[in-house]
Amino acid sequence: MRTERWLDVARGAGLLSPSGAVAQTIFAEMSELAARTGAVNLGQGFPDVDGPEHLKDAAVAAIRAGHNQYPPGAGIPQLREAVAAHQGRHYGLTVDPGTEVLVTAGATEAIAATILALAGPGDEVLTIEPYYDSYAASIAMAGATHRTIALRPGPDGFHLDPDDARAAFTDRTRLVLVNTPHNPTGTVLTTAELTLLAELAAARDAVIVTDEVYEHLTYDGVRHVPLATLPAAAGRTLTISSAGKSLSFTGWKVGWVHGPAELVTAVRTVKQFLTYVASGPFQYAVAGALSDEDGRTGEYVTGLRTSLQERRDLLVESLDAAGFVTVRPAGTYFVVADAAPLGFDDAVDLCRRLPELAGVVGIPVSAFCAAGSATAQGLRSWVRFTYVKRESVLHRAAEGLARLRG
Ligand SMILES: *Cc1c(COP(=O)(O)O)cnc(C)c1O
Predict the structure, then answer these.
(1) Is the pLDDT of residue 308 over 70?
(2) Where does the Aminotransferase class I/classII large domain start and stop, copy by copy (predicted)?
(3) How far apart are CA 327 and CA 178, in angstroms?
(4) According to the model, what pLDDT value does residue 406 have?
(5) Which residue puts its alpha carbon closest to atom 15 of ligand 1?
(6) What is the mean pLDDT of the chain?
(7) Ligand 1 — pocket residues by CB below 6 A?
(8) Were 45 and a residue from 85, 154, 174, 333 both cysteine, which residue would form a disulfide, CB within 3.0 to 4.6 Å?
């Protein structure tokens, strides 16, 4: 039996242990550890309070109205129109809902289908490092080569080094996948950083792919700038987002990708044979939500942003008080913290001991890096924590973290 192919995928995704066995992901290991020890789980990034009741009612109403068979392959027209209108309203983009929008099973499927459609053996796919874990797996499934540009910590947050960015692009660069607001660091890339990436992509005739699932979750008045709005990125950008994070319904898995019709058609060709379609009734609920920004849904998202900013502050203050060095995130569900000042050089080791030491679970940032990379080495002592948990939970985490110092 030939089984090498999935081993390539597992290797590409960093899921193979040195012995060649498929390693449990650190995410699963840490969730198990939290369950076993009763520690506060600040590892996995999902809200512990659901999104608004009126959207649950809308999903139930869609089921009762009989929207229970396969929706159209590109997604229901109402949702494609709502996505196009959303992009116009927020960013001034003109999007044709008929040919330039594809609804997907969350952002995850949009990312996988895009990479599988547009990159293959001999092609290079560039991402920022650290990166969301599905990127490496999808690039490996496509048989393409993964190259990265490091996001480096400095006194004013994480930034891309322009020389690193220039050096990462080659004649083989087919795709550059840019995630902002950025998981795990919470960085919102600046217009200057995005412009450089767009210009470098244009110079190599590479397609730009964006992951903007946290587009509405930015703090302190910082604004998210979609790459598709920059002149150098025009005509070569696929924009990916999803309802999961903005509406606190991560299980609904309604995502979308929009961009030039020929690129969207290529992605659809692959998507057709991954899931074909997904989340039928939820597409109706999300279409209603995106069209309700002046109503209860808009109010909900504004309230979520304010409350997440407060919860960010609570967790950042607890981590600082415990002796970590943090970088205050301008967006997302996450903050990263350096444990080196506390005397811990290896975050993997620290995360295994954190339940006992502080009653808390986090994820080592190296889990978002290529095994043994320079970036992984540089961020060896950093841990990612989520603050998308109730305040009472974050207070309990704060009490535990305070023990680290004592
Ligand atoms: C959560 C997340 C996703 C996945 O989005 P879904 O819509 O749930 O598939 C993609 N990218 C990043 C950076 C995320 O944090």
Answers:
(1) yes
(2) 40-399
(3) 20
(4) 66
(5) 183
(6) 96
(7) 106-108, 132, 179, 183, 211, 213, 242, 244-245, 250, 253, 255
(8) 333
Chain centroid to CA 101: 20
> Which of 109, 127, 131, 211 is the best mutation target for the ligand 1 pocket, counting ligand atoms within 8 Å of the beta carbon and taking the most?
211
Q: What percent of the chain has pLDDT over 90?
A: 92
Put residue 253 in one of left, alpha, beta given phi > 0 → left and psi -120 to 50 → alpha. left
Ligand 1 centroid–CA 113 distance in Å is: 14
Quote the ligand 1 centre to 239 CA distance (angstroms).
13
3-state SS, 99-155, equals: CCEEEEEHHHHHHHHHHHHHCCCCCEEEEEECCCHHHHHHHHHHCCEEEEEEEEEEC
184: Cβ–Cβ under 8 A, 6 or more apart, which residues? 130, 334, 336, 363, 365, 368, 384
pTM: 0.97
DSSP string, 224-236: ---GGGSGGGTTS
Sheet with 325-326, edge to edge strand ranges: 325-326, 334-338, 382-386, 363-364
Dist. CA 70 → ligand 1 center (Å): 23
**Angular region, 295: left φ>0, alpha ψ -120 to 50, beta rest:** beta
The token pair that represents 115 in the structure block: 């990479």
